[in-house]
Amino acid sequence: MHCYDPDGTLIGRLRVPEPVSNVAFGGPRNNRLFLTATTSLYSLVMSVTGAPRL
């Protein structure tokens, strides 16, 4: 999975062993990244927080 800045600059990649279908931030501090894939759900604790929830 590729990660881009808002201006389109590639800032990193996450290696996942299967195709990713969706991503979302969550958790009490909104710093956990959830990834849904073909047959699995992955969760990563990040050093950054996601966008505020509406």
UniProtKB/TrEMBL annotation:
* Species of origin: Streptomyces haneummycinicus
Q: Which UniProt keywords apply?
A: Hydrolase
Q: Which Gene3D superfamilies match?
A: TolB, C-terminal domain
UniProt keyword Hydrolase, yes or no = yes
Q: Which residues form the SMP-30/Gluconolactonase/LRE-like region domain?
A: 2-38
- What is the official name of this protein in its record? SMP-30/Gluconolactonase/LRE-like region domain-containing protein
Q: Would the keyword Hydrolase turn up in this protein's UniProt record?
A: yes
Sample GO molecular function, one term: hydrolase activity
Homology family: Belongs to the SMP-30/CGR1 family.
